[in-house]
Amino acid sequence: MKQATIDDILEPGDSRTHQERARRVAGGFWRTFRRASRHIPFADELVAAYYCALDPSTPLRVRGTLLAALAYFVLPFDLVPDFILGLGFTDDIAVLTAAIANVRAHIKPEHRNAAEAALERFARPG
């Protein structure tokens, strides 16, 4: 099997691909984030990117790139399976870093505000 490159993973895809990725991301983001948050040094940017990806006013190509990276993040098995202690999220971090770096200008203050509020709720016990 051909090893996927970051460029392959971040390919925005067509409309059907967008819809499938959006469904997968919405269904698994917070569960995966809970497991991975301590391994991700840019958790606030990741959550802001999540809100940017789900914002219908975000340009389609930007949404596609973010949805591709976020879908890779929520997949249970990828190039380096997430359950491998110490290494499991390194490939996810590389993909997410590349995606966010490419679209950072499209992450708006309202996405960052939504991320900040979500992270405050996330940090509260219970």
Inertia-based shape: globular
- This entry's quaternary arrangement is single chain
What's the gyration radius in Å?
14 Å
Q: Briefly note the structural class of the backbone.
A: mainly alpha
Percent of residues in beta strands: under 5%
Q: Average pLDDT across residues?
A: 81
Task: Please give the largest β-sheet.
Answer: none
The total count of strands amounts to 0
The percent of residues in helical segments reads 55-70%
Number of domains: 1
Low-confidence stretches: 82-86
CA(first)-CA(last) distance: 43 Å
H-E order: HHHHHH
Number of helical stretches of at least 4 residues: 6
Key structural traits:
mainly alpha, 6 helices
Protein model, in words:
The protein has 126 residues and is an all-alpha fold. It has one domain (6-123). 65% of the residues lie in helices and 0% in strands. The protein is built from 6 helices and no strands. Helix 2 (15-36) packs antiparallel against helix 3 (43-54) and helix 4 (60-74) runs antiparallel to helix 5 (90-103). The chain is globular. Residues 82-86 have low confidence and may be disordered.
Topology:
Blueprint: H1 6-9, H2 15-36, H3 43-54, H4 60-74, H5 90-103, H6 109-123
Helix pairs in contact: 2-3, 2-4, 3-4, 3-6, 4-5
Give me a quick take on this structure.
The protein has 126 residues and is mostly helical. It contains 6 helices and no strands.
